[in-house]
Write a structure and sequence with these properties.
- With about 210 residues, this protein is of the alpha+beta class.
- The protein contains 6 helices and 10 strands; from the N terminus they run E-H-E-E-E-E-H-E-H-E-H-E-E-E-H-H.
- It has one domain: Gcn5-related N-acetyltransferase (GNAT) (Aminopeptidase).
- The longest helix is centred in the middle third of the chain and has 22 residues.
């Protein structure tokens, strides 16, 4: 199941909180050799502010993390602007209200392709569900162009490119993009993936719309 881990739940879900950082170490440092901070087998960076960051975490037993991603309110600074400003042509997006950044999207690479796709779809739909529940209007971030398509566009989530792709590290095409959050986006993603309210935050709203 998919859960939200934030400062409100860290004390009651320590296995998931520490587990998401271990999974990030496995996927970004062990597998992709990112040069980022680590402690006791856990990866972290300056955007892991416990009072601002929220994490979408997929686990089947409530202890072992199989997939995760971080959502962080921009409010003037974010990874994209601080480290990859050349990827965005119009920097005014950072000043737009209710703008959050999605980063550190990863799924356990040891899982089968079918299981990974299942988790990917839950997290992708979870992006929109959590954003709608929190009044977030847009989510920005960067990924290889192929992954932008496979994670979001193939699952019914329309993207707005923020600039041309660039070669960064081992990736020939990295691109910044924006998800404009709307209930229509969410409904389309649910229909495409067969995943409905993975966080359980919009069930009442969905029922009300169906009745109307």
């Amino acid at each position: 199941m998919l859960s939200v881990i934030s400062y409100k739940s860290i004390l009651t879900t320590p296995d998931l909180f520490f587990g998401l950082h271990r999974l990030r170490h496995q996927e970004f440092i062990d597998r992709q050799h990112y040069s980022v901070k680590t402690i006791d087998g856990m990866e972290y960076d300056e955007y892991d502010n416990p009072f601002a960051a929220s994490h979408l975490v997929y686990s089947e037993d409530g202890k072992h993390v199989l997939g995760c991603s971080r959502l962080f309110p921009v409010e003037g600074r974010c990874m994209l602007n601080d480290h990859f400003p050349h990827l965005v042509e119009d920097a005014s997006i950072y000043k737009q209200p209710a703008t959050w950044e999605g980063t550190r999207f990863c799924i356990d690479s040891n899982l089968s392709p079918e299981k990974r796709l299942h988790i990917l779809r839950h997290i992708a739909v979870g992006y929109l569900e959590y954003a709608l529940s929190e009044g977030v209007e847009r989510i920005i971030g960067l990924m290889p162009t192929l992954i932008l398509r496979s994670v979001f566009e193939r699952n019914g989530i329309a993207l707005r490119r923020l600039g041309p792709p660039y070669a960064i590290g081992d990736h020939s095409k990295i691109q910044a993009a924006c998800i404009d959050v709307s209930f229509e986006q969410y409904e389309r993603a649910c229909a495409r993936t067969g995943v409905y309210s993975p966080l359980g935050l919009l069930l009442a709203i969905s029922v009300e719309r169906d009745v109307a």
